[in-house]
Amino acid sequence: QVQLVESGGGLVQPGGSLRLSCEASGSIFSIYVMGWYRQAPGKQRELVAAFTVGGSTNYADSVKGRFTISRDYAKNTVYLQMNSLKPEDTAVYYCNARSIATLKATWGQGTQVTVSS
User: Fold this and answer.
1) Do strands 46-51 and 32-39 pair parallel, antiparallel, or not at all (unpaired)?
2) For residues 86 and 115, what is the distance between their CA atoms, to the nearest angstrom?
3) Which residues contact 27 (CB under 8 A, 6 or more apart)?
4) Phi, psi (5° rounding) for residue 57?
5) C-alpha–C-alpha distance, residues 60 and 46, integer Å
6) What CA–CA distances, in Å, run from 103 to 14, 19, 98, 117?
7) Mind listing the pLDDT tens digit for each residue in 26-70?
8) Do residues 14 and 85 lie in contact, with contact meaning Cβ atoms separated by under 8 Å?
9) What angle do CA 78, 27, 21 make, to 5 degrees?
10) Secondary structure element (H or E) that encloses residue 99, with its range
11) DSSP for 60-89?
């Protein structure tokens, strides 16, 4: 079973940047679709950015132009570069791996991102 370990969260001022990392336990990018979700207090978990099966990317409207998802096959790692952060970006960010064959989803433990002055 795939395991995901996130890192890179923290406290940042509005307008600042952070890069989140999600390291997978093995070479899974060809059989899993990877993405980032977030959950703010009192809100439902929502998609932030993800790769499609074809390799293109999707972003939530609220982060388009500010966030970038990328992946490093050699390191089995997916990244989320977050720029121009806003207080409303504050949430726990989760890495997600969805099996292309079974559609089963695996989640990381989450990393807290807090945007505040």
Assistant:
1) antiparallel
2) 6
3) 73, 76
4) -125, 150
5) 9
6) 36, 27, 6, 40
7) 888 888 999 999 999 999 999 999 999 998 999 999 999 999 999
8) yes
9) 20
10) strand 91-99
11) -TTTTTTEEEEEETTTTEEEEEE-S--GGG
Q: Which residues of 73-105 are buried (b: 16+ CB within 10 A; e: fewer)?
A: eeebbbbbebeebeeebbbbbbbbbbeeeeeee
pLDDT in tens, 71-99: 999 999 999 999 999 999 999 999 999 99
The single-letter code of the amino acid at 31 is: I
Residue 115 CB neighbours (<10 A)? 19
